[in-house]
Amino acid sequence: GSFGGRTGAEGPSYVPLAWLTHARWSGDLRMLDDHWDYVGRGLLAQQIDAQGRQTFSGDETYRLVMGAAQGYSLEYAWHELAWSANSSVLMRGAAMGMADAARTLGRDPAAFDGLADLAGQALDETFDADGGLLPFVFHTDGSENVAGDVAGAPFEDVSLKMLWAGAISPQEAGPVMDALHAHAGRDDGTIQSPISDRYAGQDVFGVTI
Nearest CA to 138 among 62, 197, 92, 76? Predict the structure, then answer.
């Protein structure tokens, strides 16, 4: 890939996901076909290592909430210190969709099949924890972690994305959703990660959490 900085991973996957959503709901793949190289570059130019791992972009809107839930500082430099399951989820879902579209359009799906397999490898080998999904795994020393340490709990924004991004089928999602519900499920049927003890009882923007 040739993208870098905050476009090196994660964000560009939303481009093919958006185009694929239009094609799915309209039933018309002509626009996607006409802009194939542009849409596909959103995946092909991302940074991804030989184990399918990708970093955070640094623009993820959920990072502050994840930090509060996992017990890290709210301005933690995730994009410098950790591999991101979210990036792999988006890559896998978008690449699987582009590969299927390529087959429908008579195009070569090999590059997208390869990216989908790589991202799947990362989800299975790096982020899986007894069927649940870890939202991040550290790849370097940082001020609040030792290299190799992993988060002990799933996070709803990332785990639920497995479904809506198309990275996993509903039939295969049981273990991921079970682990998320066990950690973050509430009596009213909603799912929300509990706030870490580090922040419990503190006043944030005039609200006691």
Answer: 76
Q: Cα–Cα distances in Å, from 7 out to 14, 70, 96, 120, 127?
A: 11, 25, 20, 21, 22
Question: pTM above the 0.85 mark?
Answer: yes
Residue 136 to residues 11, 28, 142, 152: CA-CA distances in angstroms?
17, 37, 14, 10
Q: pLDDT per residue over 137-187, tens digit each?
A: 888 776 677 656 655 789 999 999 999 999 998 888 999 999 999 999 999
Give the separation between CA 159 and CA 89, rounded to whole angstroms: 9
The Cα 163–Cα 93 span in angstroms is 9
Residue-by-residue DSSP string for 158-197: HHHHHHHTTSS-GGG-HHHHHHHHHHHB-TTS-B-PPPPT
